[in-house]
Amino acid sequence: MTALSIVVPCFNEEECLPLLHRRLGEAARAAVGEDYELLLVNDGSRDGSWALMQQLAASDPRLVCINLSRNHGHQLALTAGLDLARGERILIIDADLQDPPELLTEMIAVMDREGADVVYGVRRSRAGETHFKKATAAGFYRLLSKATEIDIPVDTGDFRLMSRRALDVLLAMPEQARFIRGMVAWIGFRQVPLPYDRAERAAGETKYPLSKMLRFAFDALTGFSSAPLKLASHVGLVLSLSSILIIAYIAYAFLSGQNIQGWTSLMLVVVILGAVQMFVLAMMGEYIGRLYSQAKNRPLYIVADIAGTPRAPRAGLGQVAGPPPAVAIAQSDSPGGSGTRPISRAS
To answer: Which of 30, 77, 159, 271 is such that its CA lies 20 to 30 A from the CA of 174?
Structure first.
């Protein structure tokens, strides 16, 4: 077991990889010397990220590159790296270098001084981001803090240093829809914040457009809070009481001989009730869908290839596929053909 593992999920990060590899290596050596491993998880990149990772792994014995079978998403790619990490301490960091890896030495010092199991970064500032992104991020973290049943620190990402025992508890949680920063908060232990200033992206473009951010926020909210279901029930209760009042008004108007007019208002009520019913069904469907996904009990990730130092992956939450079948080239068996066809060596 190594002293430190650094886990980095990567998706289309070809431009960042050389600088990322250099800065992470320098930070690790400054913190723990040569006793570390660097795990880069290629999450189905469509650029040249995997080819470049293989080149880097060939020149660095401490670099392990993990190629997933397809794009699993940031949180599952991170899960794969954590599941395969062997370090006594584990640093989680994104590939864009907005979170400075040079803070590693300070994070280790804080962990030792405070006797903490988790040291997590808290963003004091966010350079290079739009006012819309900052405002929505601030609103999301504060909404999440109010709605969830656990205390999830505001203005934090996945950038954190964890002890082995904290990671082992995290890996014992097999849920499919993962919100790792919330899961880390849920496990407890002593967790200490470390304020820092977030830099601009080192290269490339963000991999989290608005649609993915909304999906991520919804996963976080439904994964750690029953507030949406409670909201739906409260809205239903209010509308039920309102409907009783409407029925009473209609009965009074009928008995008093007044003509009930207002097709528009009637249709408005019908539309509002229908919209609320659809909202309630959508909330229920989201939670039922999570139960359905969890009940299938599929592996959280599939590793297609591993480049770097030979190791025995444990893959408690996922599946590491075997090597691809070897093929040989044989003469074509078509009449008069001169081409070739691949055949299995086992044939």
So the answer is: 159
